[in-house]
Amino acid sequence: MTDQDYQLFEQRQRARGIDVERVKSRLKSLKIETPSWGFGDSGTRFKVFRNRYAARTPYERIEDAAEVHRLTGLCPSVAIHIPWDKTDSYDGLRSHAESLGVTIGAINPNLFQDDAYMLGSVTNADVTIRRKATEHLLECVDIARQTGSRDISLWFADGTNYPGQGDLRARKTWMRESLEEVYGALAPGMRMLIEYKFFEPAFYHTDLADWGMAYNLACKLGPQAQVLVDTGHHAPGTNVEHIVAYLLDECRLGGFHFNSRKYADDDLIVGAIDPYELFLIFYQIVHASEDACADVRSTVDNIAYMIDQSHNIEPKVEAMVRSVLNVQTQYAKALLVDHAEVRAAQERQDVLGAEEAVRKAFEFDVGPLLRVVREEQGLPVDPIAAFREGAYNGKIKKRASSFKG
Amino acid sequence: MTDQDYQLFEQRQRARGIDVERVKSRLKSLKIETPSWGFGDSGTRFKVFRNRYAARTPYERIEDAAEVHRLTGLCPSVAIHIPWDKTDSYDGLRSHAESLGVTIGAINPNLFQDDAYMLGSVTNADVTIRRKATEHLLECVDIARQTGSRDISLWFADGTNYPGQGDLRARKTWMRESLEEVYGALAPGMRMLIEYKFFEPAFYHTDLADWGMAYNLACKLGPQAQVLVDTGHHAPGTNVEHIVAYLLDECRLGGFHFNSRKYADDDLIVGAIDPYELFLIFYQIVHASEDACADVRSTVDNIAYMIDQSHNIEPKVEAMVRSVLNVQTQYAKALLVDHAEVRAAQERQDVLGAEEAVRKAFEFDVGPLLRVVREEQGLPVDPIAAFREGAYNGKIKKRASSFKG
Amino acid sequence: MTDQDYQLFEQRQRARGIDVERVKSRLKSLKIETPSWGFGDSGTRFKVFRNRYAARTPYERIEDAAEVHRLTGLCPSVAIHIPWDKTDSYDGLRSHAESLGVTIGAINPNLFQDDAYMLGSVTNADVTIRRKATEHLLECVDIARQTGSRDISLWFADGTNYPGQGDLRARKTWMRESLEEVYGALAPGMRMLIEYKFFEPAFYHTDLADWGMAYNLACKLGPQAQVLVDTGHHAPGTNVEHIVAYLLDECRLGGFHFNSRKYADDDLIVGAIDPYELFLIFYQIVHASEDACADVRSTVDNIAYMIDQSHNIEPKVEAMVRSVLNVQTQYAKALLVDHAEVRAAQERQDVLGAEEAVRKAFEFDVGPLLRVVREEQGLPVDPIAAFREGAYNGKIKKRASSFKG
Amino acid sequence: MTDQDYQLFEQRQRARGIDVERVKSRLKSLKIETPSWGFGDSGTRFKVFRNRYAARTPYERIEDAAEVHRLTGLCPSVAIHIPWDKTDSYDGLRSHAESLGVTIGAINPNLFQDDAYMLGSVTNADVTIRRKATEHLLECVDIARQTGSRDISLWFADGTNYPGQGDLRARKTWMRESLEEVYGALAPGMRMLIEYKFFEPAFYHTDLADWGMAYNLACKLGPQAQVLVDTGHHAPGTNVEHIVAYLLDECRLGGFHFNSRKYADDDLIVGAIDPYELFLIFYQIVHASEDACADVRSTVDNIAYMIDQSHNIEPKVEAMVRSVLNVQTQYAKALLVDHAEVRAAQERQDVLGAEEAVRKAFEFDVGPLLRVVREEQGLPVDPIAAFREGAYNGKIKKRASSFKG
Questions:
Q1: Domain ranges of chain B
Q2: pLDDT at D396
Q3: Smallest CA–CA separation between A269 and chain C, in Å?
Q4: Which positions fall inside the Xylose isomerase-like TIM barrel domain (chains A, B, C, D) (predicted)?
């Protein structure tokens, strides 16, 4: 790729009426949060392959996240998971992060790995377990205060494996009661992001099974509650970008957990299996960003883009860089859609014209554009290569010395 | 089957603490609406096989529906579809029905077979088409007044086939605007039932794609708007009984369109592919019927049970009888669940005990019970045999004389 | 797009070691068969929207197909469907086609629209219906001789809607017996392409439900029998490119029916929903085209690429042009994969490196390349625009005069 | 339940022409193999909840399996998993089993938990890893000789997570080469059962993804290779009983891994989610057991029925008893189908009659029948209650003393 590539790209886009400087400016303000747990080991129920270079402590995980930000300029914050990232001093953790140029992002409670939660956490038939779960959520709100985090990100593994195992409606009530209490503890400006999931680890019913259940709950709780869309948490065939557009229209889309899937919640690198779907999600977001309604525009501005993947066989840091670059790539393409052209085709009922107006943006090669954006930001033009050759990679490899495979 | 069968059945259930007289009483008050269009020809996109005995006019369709009621005692009303059942005199149609012992049930508008609706009806980018669609809906409200119908049952084929084809959020707004107007025209006591569908005939996005979209719209419209669950309109793997329980808990479940599916919206005879799912739906309903909350109980009491199937290869009347018997069978089984036993197992966290308490009700043979219920109601004990041997079957066969295959 | 675009494209590819002249040469020899039925009206079970400009006769359909070839240079043959394209003189039809610069391609029997086939054709429990079906297949072999067609393309709608409806194993035997007879009638050089389908129009079981059943049958019949992969005929989540690679490895992939789907057999424009999947299919094909085994390479050379779509709301000719361009685009991208780079990454167990080596080819913009290929072939550089502005479009619009909507 | 229940049951069945003594005899010869790993802890990727009473050693697992057989009379053999059940002396393990009244059943190699297999075992690009995998398979053949086992049961986790990661066709070749060598090592009378799986733990492609790939491989290997159907390893909507019938017809169905699923490979108790599907599988088996072809009948006689479930939240022994009782229940119902009645309806093209002839068998309550069968075999009439109250349960609870939760 040369300067000429970019000049040609710019000419073509200008000829189409695209404001390339504005595109670059928007690309430069894209922020994608990485998850601390994405730098540690994970796996399937069959096997967790231990990566000899994986981060082992909250501090190392934040160092990895900072490296991803250093390489890409896209990832100024890192989500943490309690208790995986539990520490004696959240001030200390916060300072560590800030010294590396990143901040602590969303706080993610864990209500699925304590033995008590086998049959449910905030939905457990046993009131003492529900209490324990609520206390943990309240603790996480408290941690958010200490870390300066805006978002509490809630995913519940709660559900049942067999018909009859649980009282579906009672569990619904218990969850609402717990979250009402937690909602009441939020500081002004904090948000509660409510995630849903089609299935797994529960196999008969999941208490928050789809966007509708998360949305309804958020509405009952209040304006600080929003829906979190994990791209892999849907039934086969679900039109995810439709849900995104719908939630934006209701001003209830709080954020994303990005990852990729072919079958179930495969948790692969976002954009690796169906890149067009990721593009179409961003197309809806970019479209809503120019809505007449200020609340819709504000909702777009506050979307928390977060990676949530389970790298079973990939090197961790490199996989994370690949993930954020894939997100950036599809966002860049979505910024090239000419919305006036789409609207004109829609208005004249030209199905193929409207389809082409969207698809053509996907077909551009945004490589030259992203290269220039990186150059202008003083970032490595090839972040993966920079990582492979860089000092940090060497540093990680020293971790292996303490590894017992 | 003999009297002895029933006596033994009764003894066993009494020994379990089941109030058999109450079960019988509830079975006798079950009402399932049949659809007029279920007595005419239907098919797949590949072929409509013409049934030489299928009803050809609204009057004949109501006669068929009345025969199903005569045979089963379960079907005192028949839903109609406008314009398929359009007539010069709805008074006349109503009298015809009443003379045969049935009433006109839900009014079903049709917004998918006029050429104007190719790219949407109430969601069309063309305001004149949206107006036309709204007028049709208002006409249906008016027909409901004439026929004495309580429910307007809305299914929209609206959706798009390609990314970019339509503005998803504008279409959402247009639909709400149309339905607000229609809602305003409802008489007190009338209900608007809003159906959703995962896909088909639209293949990229459906404007009302899931229960959440129908529910949210109903909430915005007001208390006379309710959700209609078509059992075949879900993504693969969806837990339908969970949605049923959820909507009951929100007092927003207005009714069902019953049918059966293995793949998509196969529209097979309800209960023919996964009878346990149908049982579990009724288990949730029966459970909610004893809820502490009067609104939930009232919601249960007002559920409109309706058949909506497309019999492509089956003889029409017989298929309809089979369908309502299947519904009755699973409802009968659900009435045999001992809820105290389930609850006790749930409370002691006994997963297998709770599962068994539900499943065991399914495993009973309710044949002897249903036989006695029919006898006590003066109905044929074997409705299918009664139909096959009956005079009406002979009458239908005379229709063939005018048939050109 | 300018010459400069192409020059830069060429430079970049040369720098990667891609033989651009060879890529262009392979693109110029790509042949995609269009289906005569793709130019007529089609729809869903809910409605066939009549297109006032749709072709009405076999002759008009071939004229439309010839226009697609004139615009794209990609479609030198057209598949016909019997009896939809039945004619008194296949010689006449063949001459008509040849006079327009195209040939008659695959012969497609129809065993699903005769009333006799309601419960099966070659799998019907009634031997006289099985005979009738076999005779129709033999007639199609005879037509193939007259039209000079190489391929008989078999899709069976055969299946059942209910458990018990048919004897699954007897039906399997009956189908094999019928096809053995038809196979025996093939001329040397003719091929029987056997298509499979997951479901629809049968909703409980389909006699040829997956590639395994089609493949096993082809193996039993002999070397002239091959499997036909319709991209839309799979269960949700199925890895179609894996099946393609598998069948190529067994030298049993005879051809494709291309179309696109999000849910079931949606029959949308190929490449419109998940373009990456189409690219990955071609990646497997291009990879196999360089196999050490001559039989595998020969199988690749003989793949029949065919469009099979149901354009419900799109203008017919334009939709077909869009479809073949989408196929050409993804084939072009697949030709840019550097297989040595992929293999090297695979061998050093570099998961992300191998993934990137494939994906990067997809991310190139092949617009400049395809423009030059078209110029060099003397074709319109923008086939859609050429059609919209061209004389043929005007001619089609005269068809409307005889249209009764 | 009383004697009267059974007498009435017998009368009704006799009246239908069912040979009740034959049904009882067939029920008494049903054999279902339990898996040693079903008595140990298992879980999801999110959490393995440790069961304080779970068996900890191969010896304890066989004791649990023997208890299930003692309670049900259905489970005379137990499958083992290498290396989970690795022992210094297979003679010792065999003697232990035999002393408890059971035998060692299928040998299950493990090619997914060694770090070497992260990117494949017999399909790994690294020949030394392929060699290691093949050696393990040969070791398992050797163990089978020592334990007197007939079946080697092969499940491969092999697959890839990303496009390009592996060479799909090379991997196919490598797997065949490995299995050819293992096949050559089988003793006469031994069988190799080849299992397939739609997805998981691989998320882009699985080397043996469906029955067709397992079947084709078995055919290439020879008559001692057969297909193993795991009921949970299919795409959504797949008609499993069709595959069962198909494989029986080809004399290539070697056995089952039974479990239950709603979404993916949920591994729930067989028969708990869709009992009708399990019944329909047995309907196909019972139907094939009376086939005119001796090879088909012999295939039925040699089916290895095995449980393969992952009990995440259930008590282990009780869950296993529940599982085998569910299998017995559906088999009993399938034995009540009147095949002559089905055939007659099929022949007169009576869709609803044929459907009813199958379904009615499912609707019988076989509780009285199974009670009498158990009594006649000297078994506990309520195996679950017998376990809960029995001495073995008390013994298991002593295991807890050494448990550290």
A1: 29-336
A2: 87
A3: 10
A4: 80-266
